[in-house]
Amino acid sequence: MDTGDTAWMLMPTGLVLFMTPGLAFFYGGMVRSKNVLAMLMQNVFAMGLLALLWGFLVFSLAFGDAGNGGIIGNLDFIFLKDVGPGPAPGSFFETLAIPFVLFCAYQMTFAIITPALITGATADRLKFKAYAVFIGVWLVVVYGPIAHWVFGGGFLAKWGALDFAGGAVVHINAGAAALALILIIGPRRHYGDEAMLPHSLPLTILGTGILWFGWTGFNAGSALAANGVAAQALMNTVMAPAAAMMGWLLVERVKHGHATTLGAASGAVAGLVAITPCAGYVGGMAPVYIGLATGVVCCLALGIKQRYKFDDSLDVIAVHLVGGLLGSLLLGFFADSAINPAVVHEGVFFGGGLRLLWNQTEASAITFAYSFLATVLIGLAINQTMGLRVTAADEEAGLDLSQHAETAYST
Amino acid sequence: MKLITAVVKPFKLDEVKDALRASGVHGMTVTEVKGFGRQAGHTEVYRGTEYHTDFVPKVRFEVLSEDSEVDAVVDVIAAVARTGNIGDGKIWITNVEQVVRIRTGELGGDAL
Fold first, then answer.
1. Could you tell me the domains of chain B?
2. Which of A32, A220, A255, A402 could tie A394 with a disulfide, CB 3.0–4.6 Å?
């Protein structure tokens, strides 16, 4: 146990927890005023339900029997059994010098925000009761196993895939689930015929600031120690989104004639997504190249939903799925063992050949496929039993009133 | 008696109000409204999608006036609200049958 590491890791645990209300405002500002409370509620509710499920069961599924190279943990830590202020048990946690309960709390904050990311895709039409069941089941069936594969020493980690803070576990995973769910739930009423404009971009910018601030804990905290890798990850968590913002705005300026506020916010978040898997493995100018490429590609990826005519309301696919895939794959080019000795096979640009790029491709594809298929099954099961979607009348009235009997703003 | 209704650019609100007061108008009613004329709205861009908004924000003044003072009031509004650009707005005048001051029950010109 190390007091320095412990003191540091208490901080990013709070920082990442703060990201979920940040996400609530990021999304909440983009929906229409009749649905803003429902969006905030979906995110805040995740902090309630998912924290409990994490302590009851999912931490054990993700980190029980850690390092087994398998597809799931076990039930050793169910109801936080043996999860206390002492060191983590077992050889997998050998280098971890913080209390086991702090490791559990830190990982919990990731489990809360990952399902919350999906809410942007299904905005304005998802029934609250169905949402509550969905995220609970999804955390157990999808997040728990995938966190085990990568963070818990499961088979993807054993095969040599790298994911510093969750490009696959968090972003490809949530993005694939978002795609699955919108294919089942369908578009908002009048989508395409009626303008559905953001009701408060200032809220979105506020949320972006909170997300960026919290993301420093997401990435630098993933070093799990107060060391140079954490410092490098922190710097990368500023450089990449900065470059991505410039890339996104450049595309907007050229294509539409204006650099927009929403574009600056979206570009920064896309850059944060892409640097997440790379944060502790790359350095120097690599985050700038990764960020710039992400800003340009994610902005162009907004066209996907128009082309295929699906209603990804707040662009979870263009930002999280595309950004997560880009970050995971670009790590195969930029991973540098001089930055982090944990990099066994270096990236293509550092003379490591194609080995890491292949590992990254494989891990991304498997994560996408499992999340997509499992989410389709969960989504269909809920849709057949209680229905995912609110009634047409409830949708017209707005989710704030129909789902929660409240309104955000007096008229 | 006449009702003078003027729809003007929102940033002209205070200027028009002050000018009307200075010219001796005692009261007015102001409403935030949306509409379009030849200006025909504007275009907004959100995440790469362009949306055309027909209705643009305007401010509507309603002023009651004696017949003899109508032209003066209209001139004041028109002079102050004019920028010379498209979208400056319109003024129209309608006949008013009767006006009642609720507190005292005064009628017509006495109620203004």
1. 2-111 (3.30.70.120)
2. A402
